[in-house]
Write the structure tokens for this entry.
Amino acid sequence: MLNIKNTAITATLLLSALLVGCGEDKLMTASYYKENPKALEKILEKCKAENDKGYKPEGNFGENCSTARRVRDRIMMQRIRDNVR
């Protein structure tokens, strides 16, 4: 009886650990966002939506939001510089 109970507990813990990892976003680089403007816009929209709901992005999603914002800001600054010249 104890063996079945331990097996059930172990299986539950393993499944829980697997499910927790499923929702994690892949960490993207600034280069990726520079080369993929559609992905940049998509993540910025997703970050804004979460912010509007009052959530603070965390983990890889939070890092991706920060990276995407930096890339957006650099692109905007470059456009401004190009127009000033």
